[in-house]
Amino acid sequence: MRVHLDIGQCICRRRETSRVFMAPEQAVSTEGRQLMQKPPLPIALVAVDEAHCIHEWGDDFRRTFKELGSLRAVLSLDIPFMALTATATTAVLKTVKTTLHMDEPVIVKGCLDRPNIHLQLKSIKRTKEDLQPLVQHIVSAESVEDIKKHLVYAKTKKMCMDLWEVIRGQCSGSKKKAVRAFHADISTKAKTEILEGFRSGAIRIVVSTIAFGMGIDIPDVHGVVVYHVPTTIGQLYQEIGRAGRDGEQATATIFHGKADLSKAEEDVKAFVQTTGCLREELLKHLGQDLEEPPENCCTTEEDPNNNGLFIFLQQANPEHADQTRPRAPNRKQRQDTKRGDELKAKLREMRDSWFEERPELQLFGPVAVLADEVINTLVSKCRGIHNINDLKKIKGVQAKYAAEIIGAFDQFFPECPPRRVAVARRQRGAASARRALQDITNVE
């Protein structure tokens, strides 16, 4: 564990160091405690990221998570602790507060709904049959680049390899290399290669255990397949939440078998057995209510549309393209008023006002209400945002401020009159024809 002494020496040499990252095992070791007890620079804050692991892993898999609270004994009493997680169920919250000795902590909650992810629940039949839509998509793709990125989660390393063989075994040529398996036992070199390949697009399908996920943010994952539901609702949310982080339409398909429920917590059983809205059930067990179901919300097992084509929401059979293609909707667009700087100033003014109403956030500053990078994203994408469902695709926006933000958009970038897509296309076609005729007349 010499790494801690190296960290201390590094901090001494580089006085501008602002953050030090440590694994729980490093932090609670003798060397780690010594570093925190006599730090080269003052410690302002101890942040525990992925804090749900204290609850889910602290009793067996990585017991050091449960020991993090003991660091209080070697730190000054005025050093605050912060716990961060995307899945704080009531049980997780209780465990984290107890373990980290948090007395009446300030709790900041964001909206957990991911409206761009379509949820689908299916019973496990036969592996090859269950995964056939994904395999068919891979096989029919013209090139590797045309294969949409997918994560397939398995419960065990053996199951991971079995699923990988089922998918890869039906591929040929370069497509075989685009399907990889990822679990704890593969080499560090292979893990790095798969992660970098999946991020760059050279690898399109990753079949994995939970080893692939924590701390990994790859935005353009089109779909997640959870093969056998995990035991906790938090882990389920973590897995399906790795789809569609770019805000585009994505899919999460959750397969469950009879044996899954025997070991699952009660909230997972309730989710699997519900005949109602999957999204509403999921959010309920995460302590939130569903405000407004998105257009592509979910498909339960009772739904007659749950026909197996679960992964590609917009994939139509070419032989029946006319029947399956929906009528073009009105295309909305906001006017290009060039008032982006004014909108940014308005959003910051609104943020300051909201911050003044939240005294519990004084320690963190206005960015705790709405981060600067989120404001920049809102300004850059505002012309494509027309309602609350559109706004939900932007990460970092709290639902209670959505209406005011839309109002600011309307003020600086008003809506254009709607135009039928078909009419617009005809007009573009006519314009192209006129340009072609004009070009012909210029030929000498």
TrEMBL record:
Region ranges (Disordered): 318-341
Enzyme class label: isomerase
Keyword Nucleus (UniProt): yes
Keyword entries, A-Z: ATP-binding, DNA-binding, Helicase, Hydrolase, Isomerase, Nucleotide-binding, Nucleus
Transmembrane segments: none
Upper taxonomic lineage: Eukaryota, Metazoa, Chordata, Cephalochordata, Leptocardii
InterPro entries the record matches: Helicase_ATP-bd, Helicase_C-like, P-loop_NTPase
Protein family per UniProt: Belongs to the helicase family. RecQ subfamily.
Catalytic activity, as annotated: Couples ATP hydrolysis with the unwinding of duplex DNA by translocating in the 3'-5' direction
EC number: 5.6.2.4
Helicase ATP-binding domain location: 1-106
GO function terms (MF aspect): 3'-5' DNA helicase activity; DNA binding; four-way junction helicase activity
Annotated organism of origin: Branchiostoma belcheri
Source taxon at top rank: Eukaryota
Protein name: DNA 3'-5' helicase
One Pfam match: Helicase_C
GO cellular component annotations of the record: chromosome; cytoplasm; nucleus
One BP annotation, GO: double-strand break repair via homologous recombination
Residue ranges annotated for the Helicase C-terminal domain, each copy included: 133-291
